[in-house]
TrEMBL record:
Signal peptide: none
Chain ranges passing through the membrane: none
Keyword terms: Methyltransferase, S-adenosyl-L-methionine, Transferase, tRNA processing
Catalytic reaction equation(s): guanosine(46) in tRNA + S-adenosyl-L-methionine = N(7)-methylguanosine(46) in tRNA + S-adenosyl-L-homocysteine
Enzyme class: transferase
Top-level taxon: Bacteria
Source organism per UniProt: Gulosibacter faecalis
Protein name: tRNA (guanine-N(7)-)-methyltransferase
EC number: 2.1.1.33
Gene symbol of the encoding locus: trmB
Family: Belongs to the class I-like SAM-binding methyltransferase superfamily. TrmB family.
Biased composition (Basic and acidic residues): 258-271
Functional summary from the UniProt entry: Catalyzes the formation of N(7)-methylguanine at position 46 (m7G46) in tRNA.
Biochemical pathway: tRNA modification; N(7)-methylguanine-tRNA biosynthesis
Length: 306
């Protein structure tokens, strides 16, 4: 995946900036917009035919792939039922979600996909498979998830800018809890959240762009029910070690595989902390390419503590 220059989003023009727009310039994006305009046109027909069935349309925010701070969504109404919820961050072309939705028709699946052609590909795969228990929100998960699930935003003195807790990605630093006053806080908590093969941002100077960090762990904690599972996977070794470290350092999670499956290449080779391969994860073409390039995947699991 092409890596973007280390520059902030340009501020919106026109009227005085909203709180979302003023924070946008501080955002460090964990994704890149690959061929966005050209490829988007290729998927217009798919979205015209099936978008209403699968896309949750929310008002846009002040920067690329963001939603408005005051966006409101009722997930139970969107799915038309109450059911165990699984959230996937970055579903790619939707292979994994299609497979999971077919295997668990009694579950609801919600994806966050920042790349417009990726969201369209997901919709196409869902429609071809005929699954009805999947929805997609086209947005950067780091920014959108706290809004969609009504998470509490920290207001520590070290984090506050303009009265709003700001993390390194410019979004709210969440506490790992719901905000009872937030209109979206009544949305169901997730049974599982999946972060499979996020962009590795291979260059050391770009590691700060990686999605999985301390701030995102708190966001995931706010989405999961007590005892819920955060499943992660990557085929980049140093990202796997980072994921393991994030899970084990978080007060919100325990690693049920601590000490297991040590990695000889790990700077702490005896430490381990890696899970067996998640049986529910489809072997995608993306993962197969990594295996052929001698990059076997690492699985990491975090269990939400009460």
């Amino acid at each position: 995946m092409p890596e973007q220059p280390d520059t902030p989003d340009a501020p919106a023009r026109g009227a005085a900036k909203s709180s979302a727009e003023s924070r946008a310039k501080f955002r460090v994006r964990s994704f890149s917009m690959r061929g966005h305009n050209r490829m988007a046109r290729d998927f217009d027909e798919i979205l015209e035919r099936h978008g209403d069935d699968y896309l949750i349309d929310l008002p846009a925010g002040g920067a690329t792939a963001t939603i408005a701070d005051d966006a409101r969504v009722d997930l139970t109404a969107e799915f038309g039922r109450e059911a165990p919820l699984v959230v996937e961050i970055g579903p790619g072309n939707g292979e994994q979600l299609t497979h999971a939705a077919q295997a668990h028709p009694d579950w609801n699946f919600l994806a966050f996909e920042a790349w417009h052609p990726g969201a369209a590909r997901c919709v196409g795969n869902f429609a071809r498979a005929g699954v009805t228990n999947v929805r997609v929100i086209e947005a950067d998960a780091a920014q959108a998830v706290p809004i969609v699930f009504g998470l509490e935003i920290a207001r520590d003195a070290d984090d506050v800018q303009g009265g709003y807790g700001v993390g390194v990605d410019g979004t709210g630093r969440t506490t790992g809890r719901r905000d009872p006053a937030h209109p979206n806080s009544s949305n169901p908590l997730a049974h599982e959240l999946w972060t499979f093969f996020p962009d590795p941002w291979r260059k050391a100077k770009h590691h700060k762009r990686r999605l999985v960090n301390e701030l995102f762990a708190a966001t995931v904690a706010g989405v999961l029910e007590p005892g819920g599972t955060w499943r992660l996977a990557t085929d980049w070794e140093n990202y796997a070690w980072q994921m393991r470290d994030v899970v084990e350092a978080s007060p919100h999670f325990t690693n049920p595989h601590a000490g297991e499956r040590p990695d000889p290449a790990d700077p702490e080779p005896e430490r381990g902390g890696f899970a067996p391969r998640f049986e529910g994860r489809l072997l995608t073409h993306f993962e197969e390419r990594g295996r052929l390039a001698d990059r076997p995947p690492h699985d990491i699991v975090g269990v939400r503590v009460s």
